[in-house]
Amino acid sequence: MQFRPDRDQLVRGIVDAIADPTGPRAVLILGTGGTGLSTVLRQVCQEFGDDRTWFVAARPRHPHPALGNVLNNFRAPRSGERSERPSAVLAIDDVQWVDAGTLGRLTSLVRASTDTGLRCVCTVRVDVPAAAHHYLVSELVDERLVDLVWLRPLDETGLAALIGERSGAEPTAELVRHVGRLTRNRPKAVGIAIDALAAADGIRVVDLRTHLVRPDAVPTLRPQHRLLQELRGLGASTWSVAKAAAVLDPLGDAMPELVAEATGLPRAEVVEALHALSVNGIVRQVRDGGRWAFRLPLVQRILIGQTGPYERRRLAQVAVTAVWAGRARCTDPDYLADQQASAGRLLDERRAKAELLAHARASARPGGSANAGVWLRVAAQLSSDETERVRILWESAQLSAGQARTAEGLATIESLLNGLSAQPGSTPLLIDIHLAHITMLRATGNQAALGWLARGEPWPWAPDPVVQTMTRAGALYALGRWQQVRQLLDGLPRHEDPACRAEVFDSLAALWRGEPDRFSGHLSDPDQQGFPYTGALLTLGELTAAERMLARGGGHPEQLALADQAVLAARRGEFTRALTLTRRGLAPGVTPGSDPSRVGMIQTAALILLARGQLRRASEFVDRGHDGGRTALLHLLAVPQARAAMALGERQQAEYILGQAIKDAAGSDTVAGTDELWFASAQLAMAAGNRDRLDVCLREAETVAGELGTDRAIAHSLLIRAAVEPRSGTAALRAARALGQPFELAMAVEHLVRAGAADPRLLREAYGLLGPVDALLVRARMRTLMRENDVAVPDRQAVVEENERLLAVLVAQGFGNQQISALLGVSRRSVESRLTRLFSRSGYRSRLELAMAMLRDRPEPPVAVNAS
């Protein structure tokens, strides 16, 4: 029987083979542990029913009276009992454990199965040192009485599907690769891995996707878990050896000797325990008399997590001293650093500190070890020099922040602040530490602490007044209090701040207030401070200026903060990449960038989801933006909120949202981004035919454009003017093209055509720009506009498929026919007929079935992400 990757098909094939009177007398299902052998066997048994199935599970080193009773009591069917199907099915799980004598009786029964009507189905693990199955296989295969079925590990698609089922959400490609490495794609192990990673806080669900947020998380199982219970059931010595071997296994041939040294057990007892673990499929010998290795990395990592604090330090001490003495070798340089960090002061402190520092600094790069921050913290503990200790801890905190390990970075920084509060130090370093503290407080949502800092209330303050001023300014900036930032910094002499941090805060605060002169002076500055300015330009929609500044400073997109990378991708029209980066940036504890950049990231992601018809998910993103409390530029999130209401025909709600956002921006003394609010308000007024409101929007938008002076603010004002004076359409279109953003241009063309300020034939260009970004909803509405203006819509078959896909997306979100009608700009009758065709073609019988199918299958093209 040929193996088929689909498990249901596999089960059906086995059942059909057994039920066939001319088929095999027995089927052996072979595979390694964890591939689902027992599950497949039980599914086969369910097909025949309990009254016809005899199920026996064999176990190592235990008698099998149940199987003996079955063999002794089985009788041939009486006359008239025969049927086209077997009279009984004997299912034996883990037949490799059955003794040779019992196997001989079973073989005889199989040979006589023509008369008895008995059929056998057995699972055989081929990865344990049990030889009994070879006898069974060779005897019966030679006589052509048995079929062999190989049960392979999952392929990548099957692995992703199982992870999604277990975690409740579609997994990212990174998580699929990680679980595949841990489990070797074995189904049983996958379930354990997901449970263990969730318990260790290593995975999180964001936007209906399961993300790997901590690749280094040690998988954790409850003490009552079957795997741990079975291992403990092998005896205290074997349990101790299993844990020690998990830690010391990378040391190769030296492992058994070192396990004996660490546990105090005789070497012979250690080897006996390893053989017991081998029989149970936990370890294997790579070569005769050679090194041992764990079959699954998952089990090894789980066992490492079972070691107690002192036990772990002792094992690490044994490992390091053996390597230092030349008694053991390891090819993984990270392993030695991990053991040095675990052993700590049990080692030669000077040597351990030096090696940890060297290795951590060599690994402090994108894609480097996630444990580099831990190595630095331990090196700091081993240092006897306070100045060096502070410097190393600061390195560790920076590295933790860069790796999105915010909780660890925050703990490191707070220990630094408590230690430095009563003593003078380097002003630039202290400023950096306090500002990093503010960033991490924002990432963890500690609004109260930010308020204390902004007010200058008691805190572990450094005695330096410059440090205190800069810390308060940083907290005020995070809260969006631009005027207070500028007032506070006006009295700070710039020479007191060698790295010009005050200048960065001052110029950015001025920009958000609509005073860009101080900011504009830095646009040609190629130094490292260019990254905050690049992020600000991206948030404002100034793609060309941002890319020019990044290139002038010799920077690359991967060097930007995560939020800025996401906004850059969105502005360029790389929508799927932008969403991938945003999901990563919204994972708990991640610091994606400054507060304005984070809001810009969420705003652009929500607008992308709206364009794709995913209104519910867009709303969830906006809610995440508000979760952290009051922060800078929150009024930008009103844009996707209002546009969602506009799409649903809820004009009054949209007007309220925009009006409140305009009021909030004015209350926070913020001008930046209000051009988007006035543009959306103008479109509402235009749809309602409210000329007076349109004039107000034009006047306010031109004021904002005059203050900000950005290309995008000017483009928005020109687009509004075109709605008032159609002859301005040419200038507005030229300004929109100059932005260099495909989606913005398509939206500008649609606006101008609706305003009667542009040739409708331009809709073909706009429609083509929207195809690569999968803007299903916007394209559907544009098709309606094209037909209204007698512009031919290309590729009729693609249109039919796109309409069905969009309709399925909207139905899956729970929208009714009236809402779908508003969203698509068509009649309810049209919606009803489209739904009828969709259900007829797809085979789904209800909206619920369709919604569940959409949740299970939400494909997006894979995208490479470098979230440094």
Features:
3-stranded mixed β-sheet; 868 residues; 62% helix; 5% strand; 45 helices; single chain
Short description:
Helix content is 62%, strand content 5%.
Please describe what this structure looks like.
By secondary structure, this protein is mainly alpha-helical. It contains 45 helices and 10 strands. The strands form 3 sheets. It has a 5-stranded parallel sheet with strand order 2-3-4-1-5, sandwiched between helices. A 3-stranded mixed sheet has the order 6-8-7. A two-stranded antiparallel ribbon has the order 9-10. A hairpin with a 6-residue loop joins strand 9 (about 285) and strand 10 (about 290-295). The longest helix is centred in the C-terminal third of the chain and has 18 residues, at about 690-710. The radius of gyration is 34 Å and the shape is flat. The two termini are about 50 Å apart. Residues about 1-5 and about 860-868 have low confidence and may be disordered.
